[in-house]
Amino acid sequence: QVHLVESGGGSVQAGGSLRLSCAASGYTYNGMCMGWFRQAPGKEREGVAYVRYGGGSPAYAASVKGRFTIAQDAAKNTVYLQMNSLKPEDTAMYYCAAASRSGVCPRPLADFGYWGQGTQVTVSS
Question: Where are the beta strands (DSSP E) in the chain?
Fold first, then answer.
């Protein structure tokens, strides 16, 4: 299994920045699809950004493209989500996740079998 722990959430004003961290441990492997998801109150969970563990080309939701960047530090076994130019509509609980099987990346939400506990991001106007 894979254990994921998110951190870095908080409250910021519109236009501000935050960097979320996802520390991974357990049976991680290069090529494993990693994703950042978010869920706002009353809305469905949605994918925000994806990358293969160990390196690869990232993918982003249209709503965050150009503002968010997913990156990783292999030495720290950590995946990051740099969030710039934050908007009130970015307010949500953010989750880090890992796919339970090898395959395509991005991939459907149901394919992500390992999840962190979530970290809250609140953007005020």
Answer: 2-7, 10-13, 18-26, 33-39, 46-52, 59-60, 68-73, 78-83, 92-99, 112-115, 119-124
